[in-house]
Input
Amino acid sequence: MKYVLLNYTKADPAGERQPREMHPAVAAVLERPDVSGWVRLQPAESATTLSLESRKVLLTDGPFVDSKEFLAGLILVEAENLDGALAVASELQELDVTAAIEVRPVLELELGGA
Amino acid sequence: MLEDVFRDQWGRVLATLVGVLGDIELAEDAAQEAFALAAERWPRDGVPANPTGWLITTARNRAIDRIRRERTLVAKTGQLERELRDGSEEAMDETATFPDERLELIFTCCHPALALDAQVGLTLRTLGGLSTEEIARAFLIPFETMSKRLTRAKHKIRDARIPFAVPPGHLLPERLDAALAVIYLIFNEGWGGGRVDLSADAIRLGRSLVELMPDEAEAHALLALMLLGHARSAARLLGGELVLLDDQDRSLWDQRLMDEGRQRLERALALHGSGAGGLYLIQAAIADLHLREPRNWEEIALLYQQLERITGSPVVTMNRAIAVAELEGPQAALAVLDRLELDGYRYYHSTRADFLRRLGRNDEARAAYARALELTQPGPEHRFLESRLADLS
Output
């Protein structure tokens, strides 16, 4: 059975970005064999949310916020830039099976200590 | 004088720097340093033969110095990294020609993943050459708020990798619409608030867009629309007070701007060819008709009808109602307005008030003027509505 661990963090009031260095103890956990993969995300401010309004995909600046929906899955996309990721997300959103898709860039960094 | 050169050059210089450095903030800092250096040296040593080249080269050298000091940044700046490695000295020559990448920058700033107010602010800052303080003042918001908004947008462009490129064909129509909408919004902020400078900034942006996309009918049409409006600005705001079109002193209309606007309209029509008009083409044609005497209200109503079919916007229907009032009388026009849900729109109430006033329904007219006043910022439009309200009591 596979599981996803979703990490939440408090927004930094100063608007600081996430530190590029990973906490060494966290890095140690991520290197264990039972951890099969991980990504760190850019801050929520870099998010774009797609929704469907009268059968047209609408882009909104910022993360998805609504308590009635629940997180149903995540999809990793390799793209040259945001437009590439948005193209895949739009294609999915047009199918009208999800309430919204939030596109968030992955923070690319080396595993701490590695 | 130097200030004009700077404002003209800013967008051009910044765009090239963003292309080289891959980061708007870094490019802005470097450009600012280069402009400051120019302000110090040019009056003393004379303006260089190629001011754009001088500014770009100087800014780039400054940025490279800085990056060399902060080596960690280099990994992020692809092209620059290559240049640093190759050490191509000839590219550093200030007489070299640099690609004009303003169009790329426009599409970055007007990317739909950015909030609309951020698109507007960023476009004015990067391509319009306005300072953050000037933009904050123009939109009546605190400097801090505007500064945060711009910083956040720049970070999103960097972190989410919003492309610095002219969109590919299948995305272009939609993205061009977004860019045109941003420029028109800037123009209307100036128009509605009586801030002629902001309208002039929008026209400058419109001119750049036409220069960069000479085959786009809608770019020409937007410029025509703005020019035909702006041509009347001296007559429309006389001594700081709003004067309606019918009461304007036509000798104050700027004939040069009107001629240019009509030329742009002609060009847009030629590029557009046959078939239903584009959004701005129809609006520019309407603006042109408004400047002719006697006004052809039937033609104006027809064009609004076309526009209604394209946009389905109640604001357009409201404007058609104004033509209906001229053709069929205020009673018929009022019936059109009553079907619309535009309670939050100030011009809806002022238009309604005018129809009611012409019908002699003064109590209702007063209530409508009062509602319009509630929705209007202090300024010429507010004072105009107040005087109309006063005339009724």
Q: What stands out?
A: Chain B has 20 helices and two strands.
